[in-house]
Specification:
Globin-like, 3 domains, 15 helices, alpha+beta, two-stranded antiparallel ribbon, 7% strand, 8 strands
Length: 434
């Protein structure tokens, strides 16, 4: 008898499901001869009316169903005979059945339907016995109460097992998905077969193209919890370099969904690449995030690809989701800072004749003029100065650089050098910033 339960002639027993009704001792003797027939009718009804359990060719599954029904009906009669009888073996069995349902990816609804169906079949047989006179009509009500209390206990055991197994399955699935993310972004890449095997185990369909988002370390206090993202996105914020992998990023509205999901975070969305090149997408995303920390790029078009004043991003870097595809030229220029420094020194040698403050002013004006196809008025608007100021500076620039300003190839090289110079300035400012 469970601890805390009491039984005596004519009394009741308290259980987790409720108060077990008092029944005459002879009721169990009347029910016992009908156990086998009752169990078989319940099994037949379940396999006929619950599609998930109609598996005539699966001997293992059919055997489990038969054992569960026979044990449950036998336990019910034992309980009628002695309400204090231990139900541990039966509840353990149904707890295991709940675990099996979770492991096989089903919901609890088929199992609950089977339990309800078993109770209805048993209740109908009890009523038939009352009609035949085997059971007194006075005991039908308390036997029915006992039956549905017993059903509640079995349902609770199933639910407990299902919940435990679901948590374990979810935890294991999450571990597999994190491991899968590690494999996909490994450089050099692992074999496609290894990725495919783990993807199957993680329930993840292999996409044709992916993009990787590098996230700023969430240990910084301005990050909130990661919101829900589409279920096919692989996420690991516990890595040394937190990131997530987006399948089929070129789909309609896909990037916008990810951006909304990452609201409150700072991250860089790498370019879309074939699955085997995911490590490259992550590398470029990390480089873009590093540029954002230095203030060299911002969300939206940044300093080297856009037309902001001298291209400068706000102090302290960018916030939000930065798309690498909007900063590919900046990434290319920043790939080799030493070469960028040499390029700037060679192409911008005339600036050395000026004082440092003048160098910055002239370089900013020349870059704005080149970016605006030689239109002084547009360059002035970009620099927030009067067009006449730009024209004055352009006369100085003409004196410094001479006829090369009229050559398309030379203008291209000058613009590349000026952009590289801006990146180097941003990097130096970022290193000085606390």
């Amino acid at each position: 008898m469970p601890p805390g339960s009491t039984v005596s002639p004519g009394s009741t027993v308290s259980s987790a499901a409720g108060v077990w009704p008092a029944l005459p001792p002879g009721v169990a003797d009347v029910l016992r001869p009908e156990l086998g027939r009752a169990a078989e009718e319940v099994i037949d009804a379940i396999q006929r009316e619950v599609p998930e359990y109609a598996r005539p060719d699966d001997e293992t599954y059919t055997s489990t169903v038969r054992r569960a029904v026979h044990q449950a009906t036998a336990q019910f009669v034992l309980q009628i005979a002695d309400p204090g009888t231990s139900r541990e073996a039966t509840t353990d069995l149904f707890r295991d059945i709940g675990r099996i349902e979770a492991a096989e990816g089903r919901s609890l609804e088929p199992l609950q339907s089977a339990l309800r169906l078993g109770a209805r079949v048993t209740w109908r047989m009890l009523c038939e016995q009352a009609v035949r006179g085997s059971l007194s009509i006075d005991v039908i009500r308390p036997v029915g109460e006992a039956l549905f209390l017993y059903l509640d206990e079995l349902a609770a055991a199933c639910s407990e097992g299902f919940t435990q197994a679901s948590a374990e399955v979810a935890g294991e699935l999450e571990r597999r998905r994190r491991r899968l993310l590690d494999l996909i972004v490994t450089d050099p890449p692992v074999s496609r077969e290894a990725v495919a095997d783990l993807a199957r185990a993680a329930g993840w369909a292999l996409p044709r193209r992916v993009a990787v988002v590098a996230l700023e370390d969430r240990s910084q206090d301005h990050f909130g919890p990661l919101p829900a993202l589409p279920p096919d996105v692989l996420v690991d914020v516990a890595r040394l370099d937190p990131c997530l992998l987006v399948p089929d990023p070129d789909g309609p509205g896909r990037a916008e969904v990810i951006e909304r999901g990452l609201r409150g975070w700072t991250g860089a969305l790498g370019p879309a690449v074939p699955l085997a090149r995911a490590a490259s997408s992550l590398r470029w995303a990390r480089q873009t995030l590093a540029l954002a920390r230095r203030g060299a790029v911002a969300a939206g078009r940044g300093m080297a690809d856009g037309r902001a004043v001298a291209g400068r991003a706000p102090a302290g870097g960018s916030r939000g989701l930065i798309r690498c595809e909007e900063h590919l030229a900046t990434l290319l220029l920043s790939a080799d800072e030493e070469l960028g420094r040499v390029l700037s020194a060679v192409q911008l040698a005339p600036l050395a004749r000026l004082r440092p403050v003048q160098q910055d002013m002239v370089a900013d004006t020349l870059l704005a003029w080149l970016q605006n196809a030689g239109n002084a008025r547009l360059a002035a608007g970009q620099l927030h100065v009067h067009p006449q100021t730009v024209r004055y500076r352009l006369r100085q620039i003409q004196e410094l650089f001479g006829p090369v300003l009229a050559e398309p190839g030379a203008r291209f090289e000058l613009e590349v050098a000026l952009r590289a110079r801006e990146l180097l300035r941003a990097g130096a400012a970022g290193r000085r910033r606390p």
